[in-house]
Amino acid sequence: MESYRIALAGNPNTGKSTLFNLLTGLRQHTGNWPGKTVIHAEGEFNHKDTDFTIVDLPGTYSLYSNSADEEVARDYIIFDKPDVTLVVLDATSLERNMNLALQVMEMTDRVIVALNLMDEAKKKGIEVNSEALSKKLGVPVVKISARNKTGIKELLDTVHEMAQGNVPTTPYRMTYSEDIEAKIEELSPKVRQMIGDEFPIRWISLRLLDGDESILNSLNDYFRRERKRGGISNVSVNATT
C-alpha cells in the first residue's frame, strides 16, 4: 500500500490542530522534537486506500527562525521534504495569515492552502474567491471548516492527488528590489555548488543574505547526520561560502 508524509503548517489559532485531530482521531502520538523542547505531534490516516502520516508543525507566524518553533517548522519542510505541505489559513484574517503561506511556497512546490473557518467567515459576511486565489498563488486552495467537518473530502482528495504527483503547481514567488535580486543571483550558484539542488536554493540564499546563522547550523547538522548514515561525503557550510 502506498504511503505519504504530510506537513501541517499554519499560524496559531487557525484551527490547524482541530484539523489534525479530525484526520487522525486516536491514531496520533506526541513527544518532543529531537534536541528541542518543542512538542512534536504526529498521526496517521487513510484515504482512498492510501496511508498518510501527518506531522502537526508548531503554529508560527513566519519561518524566519526567530524562535525554536519556527526553526522546527522550517527544518522539517526543508530537510524531511514532505510529499505535501498543507498550510491552514484563517479565512477571516487572510492578510495576516498569508505571510506564512508565501514563505512556505518559497521553500517547496508541493503546497495546498486550506481556507479554514469558512463558517466564521460567512457569519462575518466575508466571501473568498478560492478559484481566483488559487490562480494567483499557483497552488490548490480548498475551503473547509474543520470544526463542522465541511470541505474535508475535497481537501483529502486534493492531498491524495498531489501526493501522487498529479497536481502541477507554479507557486507564487516574491520579487525583491533589484539590489537584493542581484545578490540572490550572485550567491545562489555558490550555495548550489556547496549543497546541491535538493534544497530550496533561492530561499536559503535569501536567508543567508539576511544573516540567518541558524540555517547554517541546520544545514551542517543535516550533513553531519547524513555522513553518519554514510549517505554523503564530507560537506560543511559556513558564512564565507
TrEMBL record:
Protein name as catalogued: Iron transporter FeoB
InterPro entries found in the cross-reference section: FeoB_Cyto, FeoB_GTPase, G_FEOB_dom, GTP-bd, P-loop_NTPase
UniProt GO MF annotations: ferrous iron transmembrane transporter activity; GTP binding
Classification via SUPFAM superfamilies: P-loop containing nucleoside triphosphate hydrolases
Classification via CDD domains: FeoB
Pfam family, one: FeoB_N
Domain FeoB-type G: 3-165
Species of origin: Rossellomorea vietnamensis
PANTHER family: FE(2+) TRANSPORTER FEOB, FERROUS IRON TRANSPORT PROTEIN B
One GO CC annotation: plasma membrane
